[in-house]
């Protein structure tokens, strides 16, 4: 059944059109529900204002990415910037963590599909990261239906009738706190043009969601703060500075206090690990920490060094968090975040329960338990789970080691990580490359990872249900 029919909407005939402000052109299919609830004239004006104010800054940041990539392709290496040493060595802190999200010991992630949103909010996790990025194929219907779903979730009115099972899904009284992940800077929105060029995807995702939800979110979820966001794929603090300016612009439009919007940045590119202090500094009024986006981080190592034949990775199964460059990245992130007073979030447990194979299921759960125990003992304040079935195991690891503490910001400073060097963060991973490894990781369903494994791409691939996931 058509997704919009699932939402109880109707599509119009060819003569209908969205009511758009000057300079805005919507090329996605008309839907009355989208027009009434999301693509209103005022909301589109807000997105257009963001695009016009920040597009030159975004273009410059993307040009800088290309220049850096050329340096790496000609033998250069990423590293700490001498010009910002004063930030790394300075004594400063981010704004206090809002009470509503002080405890983030287990977070679940997933796309903004209606049933998924309800189940994730009801999952027992502390946070649900609703994803417009890696977990979602950016079709027009997916993006706009996702905006409708989140608006209904923030309002507390969301429900879903599964006709096949004759079951109605609704929100529990207690739900996870909602974070939203917009797309990365590099992705355009092909369905919305502003002044003759595609809008920046993340400005569409952020702008529409913020415009429609900031007031209800602050009342229903944020305890006076919010909305809350996850920011992906950044490579440099100049990109964080743009986000900070966007947040300030949005707060001014809404008439709320500066620092109301809060965001966690995913450190999932190799260049960004050398910019963690600088990223937090730029977002210091709006930051609630950093996250180890480790699957994309491994991919970024490959991408950064694609022209360095001496840096080929071993079989992917050998590239885990015990590799020195990954361990160093995690420990430096913890030290950096706790020094600045914000959360250091762990990585994704990508396994899913395997109901028809108890032995394989136990092996997968054992991997999750060991990984989460390593994270909490290292000092992480929380972790990610890809499936509700993993939440109890993840929660137990953090409960057993953190007790009643909301986080480890004050108790696990990790000053031993203060002297981690560029060489350690770039250290070549040890291991071998085998034909068995290639076969294992080339377009094959991996029951432990719970997704299509693909060595060549490493980053998001396609599951049988059509969703993208990290492999």
Automatic annotation (TrEMBL):
Primary location: other
GO cellular component: glyoxysome
Compartments where found: Glyoxysome
Reaction(s) catalysed (UniProt annotation): glyoxylate + acetyl-CoA + H2O = (S)-malate + CoA + H(+)
EC supergroup of this enzyme: transferase
Family annotation (Pfam families): MS_N (PF20656), MS_TIM-barrel (PF01274)
Gene3D superfamilies the record matches: Malate synthase, domain 3
EC number(s) reported in the record: 2.3.3.9
GO biological process, one term: glyoxylate cycle
Keyword annotations: Glyoxylate bypass, Glyoxysome, Peroxisome, Transferase, Tricarboxylic acid cycle
Pathway per the UniProt entry: Carbohydrate metabolism; glyoxylate cycle; (S)-malate from isocitrate: step 2/2
Domain Malate synthase N-terminal: 23-85
Gene Ontology MF term list: malate synthase activity
Record family assignment: Belongs to the malate synthase family.
Name under which the protein is recorded: Malate synthase
Species in which this protein is naturally found: Dipteronia sinensis
